[in-house]
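ERR on first pass: missing label on line 2. Operator R.T. fixed the label and resubmitted. Corrected input:
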Amino acid sequence: MRVKKQKRHRKIVRFYSACFGFREPFKVLCDGTFVHHLLAHGLTPADDALAHLLSARALLFTTACAVAELRALGAPYSASLSAAHQLVTARCDHEKRVSAAACIESVVAGGNSEHFFVATQDGELRKKFREDGEAGGK
Ligand SMILES: [Zn+2]
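pass 2 clean. output:
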């Protein structure tokens, strides 16, 4: 099961490398749900876990809005919050905080010039990116 998943991830990474000039180390933009998932499954240190999944070096990013969302969730997410603080903060221009999903969407909007992979456990957001990918071929 795990091996199969890894193989699929590798294929996706190869695809993006070939088609869009994604290069190692890959930049992975994580939201709070994903950070929480990594911790809950003991996938730490997170950059090692992702490097293993992608079979490539990975740099983890999050956004100020995603961190703010985690903070708002309070005590049950305090471990995820401090883990998120360890990540590099990708720039977003939201002076007033928006939801992590909206923020991440805006950071990769307009052609995803920073070449971020999006890592989320948010079902709606995953669905959205999948549909975009299939409809637009990108
Ligand atoms: Zn933002």
